[in-house]
Design a protein that fits this description.
The chain is about 55% helix and about 15% strand. The two termini are about 35 Å apart.
Amino acid sequence: MAVIATIGKREVSADEVFPLLSSCGLWPQIMREMVIDRALCSLDCSFDEVEVYYRKQLADDAGFIDKRKRQMALEGVDENSLEFYIKRPVLLARFRETMFAGKVENTFLSMKTGFDKVVFSMIRNRNHELVRELYFRLESGEENFAALASKYSEGREASSFGQIGPIEMKQLNPVLARNLHTAQPGVLNAPIVIDGLGVITCLREKINARLDDTMRQRIITLLFEEWAKKEVEEYFYQESG
C-alpha cells in the first residue's frame, strides 16, 4: 500500500483515504477545491501580504509559517507546492475580489426584492371556511389578529401570536412573497391558498435591503459559489470538445 501522507505518527495509505472520501461524501468538496486551485495557480502575492493574513498566528508564534509548511509536507504536499498553499488564502481573496466585485451592484439590483425583509402577521388553517370567517371577523374589528392567530393558526406563528420576521423575502414561499410584495403595511390581505392551507396575512413592516459591506461580501460569495459549481460541472462532467 503506497503511503500518501504522515499524520502525527501514523502513515496513511491511499487504500485507507480514498474509501473514506467517498463514504463521508467529501468528493464534492475535493472537486470544488481542485477547480479553485486551477484558477489560483496563475496568481501570486508578496510575502508581506502573506504575513498580514497570518498576523494573528505569527504574533503567537513567529515560526508559524515554517511549521505549517513542515506539517503540509508530512501530509503529502509536494515541496514545489508548499508556497502556493501558504499563499492560497490571500490568492483566493484576490481572485474573488477581482472576478466578482464589479458585478456586485447589478446583482444586488436584480436580487434586491429577495433580500428585502418583512415583518408580518399570518394565520394558516386547512379549514378554508374557518379562514374566511376569521378574515371577516378581523376586517370588522370584532377580534384582533394576535388572539386569532394564537388560537387558530396551524403554523409555527401560532406561538408568536401570528407574527413572523424580520425575514428575507427569498426565504418565503413564492406565493406568500408575492402576496407581501404588493401589500400595504397595516392593511389586512384577503385569504389566499398556499400549499392547501387558507392563509390570511397583514404586512407590518418592510425593511429595504442596503448594499453595505456585509451585503457586498455576501453577493461576492454568492457569485463565487455559482462560478465554482459551474467550473466543477464543466471540468469533471462535461465532455471535452
